[in-house]
Amino acid sequence: MATKTQVEAVINGEPIEFLCEPRQSLLEVLRDTLGLTGSKEGCNNGNCGACSVLIDGALVNACLVLAVEIQGRQVTTIEGIATPDGLHPLQQKFLEHAALQCGFCTPGFIVAAKALLDRNPDPSEAEVRQWLAGNLCRCTGYDHIVKAILAAADRPTGAEAHP
Amino acid sequence: MTQTEKTSRPGFRVIGSSPLRQDGVEKVTGRARFGADIHLPGLLIGAVLRSPHAHARILAIDTSAAAAYPGVKAVVTALDLPELESKIADIGEASINQRYQSNNILARDKVLYFGHAVAAVAAVNGHVAEAAAALIKVDYEVLPPVLDVRAAMAPDAPILLEELRTAELGDHGTGPTNVAAHLLLETGDIARGFEAAAVVVERAFTTAMVHQGYIEPHAATAQVEADGQVTIWCSTQGTFGVREQVASILRLPLSRIRVVPLEIGGGFGGKNNVYLEPLAVLLSRKSGFRPVKLTMSRKDVLAATGPTSGSVITVKLGADAAGKLTAAQATLIYEAGAYPGSPVGSAMDVIFTPYRIPHVRIDGYDVVVNKPHTAAYRAPGGTNAAFAAESVVDELSERLGLDPIAFRLLNGVHEGNRKVDGVAFERIGLLETLEAAQSTAHYRAAAPGRHRGRGVAAGFWGNYGGKSSASASVNADGTISLIEGSVDIGGSRTSIAMQLAETLELPIETVRTTIADTDSIGETEGTYGSRTTFATGWAAYEVGQKLKVGLKERAAHLWGVTAADVDYADGVFRSGAEHMTFAGLAAQMDGTGGPVVASASVQPSSWGPGFAVHIVDVEVDPETGKVDILRYTALQDAGKAVYPDYVAGQMQGGAAQGIGWALHEEFIYDGQGRLLNANWLDYRMPVSLDLPFIETVIVEVPSPSHPYGVRGVGEVPIVPPAAAVANAIYRAIGVRLTELPMSPGRIVAALRAQDR
Question: Of A51, B91, B427, B439, which is the most exposed, with the fewest CB atoms less than 10 Å away?
Fold first, then answer.
């Protein structure tokens, strides 16, 4: 069996050390080694976005990153989005807008949406749809998801689309 | 089933509101545990070896190298499964012979599709299990595959299942065949009906095999104890269905199996059937009673689970000069996949049902081909059928010079009309939904312009009732703990709790729902057939009625009156001058007889069907053939929308899946039957950029078959979209597309053919 490598990183604000094989993806280590199962495996090849995480603020699919690559980096997963005081506004708006049905893709969407709002606090509907094109949802038709994100950005939703 | 007074109250206090869903916080914080999120001490991970061939005889399997691989704890093949007699079993809107299902879990004599499971391994981790599975040697005699229903029906076609005989009109054929069944529905005399027609339109359609496309891959974990007791944790639409299937496949008593539901990441019909659960049980048993988890890769999901049938359908419709339909004929040939059991029967139930037609003949064929065994997919068979029928309805209304909605209003079914199978409708809401469609801003807006078109289609789905159970206990502070057996795939914990809260005239915050395992609640069929809010909600209603009876007895005891003298309204018990709030009485349970609990099981004998009407504007790029959805409105009769935000979500989700089916999605096989696009880059589901906001209009024509008028809402919204999009494309470019998906290449080809 492969030799394990020691990795030190900051995950959701906490310094953390773990051992992993070089072939293990960040997603595998998050889920199986660190118990952070909020990041989901939908495809394991970067097509669905259910494992979206932030590495030093950049949105990536955890299935496409080797765990050894996060040495010395800051990782934010869905488990790190809420604060001890309560839900992140995106999480709250997802609930208020019924933006989830089965909820499996939801962590990836919330992490991806946070990355968007961190760089563009006032996105248009088109910008939201463009940004989310790497996250698959099969239940909702995206309607309530896009509206929840626009609401979290404090922007009126698309009711004006057809005057 | 308990007899129920059928109340029809205009005012609701909880039903029709949209509280935050009870499982919401867990799901937005990543804490909810889905199928693959379970970890147990000593857990082993499994891997499945799958066939690289679409059709081959298995001559020998050598597992010795895999068994000897370091870290491997168990290897199983079909020899580890009991050989079963033929017996048909129902699995959530689909059925399968249990022997075939066993062979689908692990191939015994033959592999029948690319991806068919042949062996499974359990090891200390997934990498070891996969490496070991790759060491299993299978000696195949490769046979020619049959990949098309027309080829499969040819007299000299290679035969998939040597013992299969055509079931036809109560009889069985005599020779080997790939046609599992020929079904017939008939009323009147179609020859006479077409003689009476002034206009007749006949067209042939084909649709591709498509997948449900749930984002969560299948996952199952099993622990077998040394005494044979089995616990299964899995992501499924129906825990009791898993229990029944595993018991049947492994010949175990039902009471020896406990199925614990984890959260489910989408199903759409595809997570009723078991695939991994029996393997996890076999591997746990063979590995010295360690827990074993199996999860599928996306490739495995696409190649070897689901999908729904591709089909070949012909439709012929006739109408008189006034626009009244006189006759309808259809032939539907559906791919069953490797084993019999396509949804052709429910397709026949859908195809002409929105309309009053005096003379009808529908022939259906269930045909096996070397593709994965089909499973239910949201209104199984309905989308294909409506694509064909509603395209012809559109063409007929155009020939008659009638507005497509006016034509449907002229011919639409209402209460008292009979379906082709003779069943008469109770109160239904098709006409109301069509009228609502006519008056939408979308339909009244100006025609959308050059290379743009507006299409309309209607759809029917019968819905289902089924067995459901619920129980509840009143807590000393006046809150209620509700336990039920339906897994929550899109808000049903809350929609069921809302019906209990409504019955008890209490705020929704009073009721908290837990979904129980199979040992902890009465039998409850799966979350399929648009039945969960309808039937399990009904069980919750019955529980509420019983709790009221129990609490009235306590009030009577306290006040020295009889229970019949106690009234309950607005959360307050009253008798004469005495009164006590629900919470006040709950605090008195201790000392007046102890806990007040109630349970109820229902099996409704009738349920209200659903109708939907969809309107879509598209733009077609004549250079590339790309179709953009500009605007989309979905309308639907929900009976009574218990949880409107989530009813709208079902309508939007069904529309989105239907749009994907219409424009992009298809399984692409090579000549040897290998699936070429078993990934989401090449199996193209809609992304956020492909869709506009989907407008929804909920029509409420209460179902007389439910205490609160509820109709199932989940399935019918996938019935109209493909036809609506096809009709819109026709208005945009003047060509009728008769093949799904209406992908860019097909549209360009159709435009070129038109130019010639």
Answer: B439
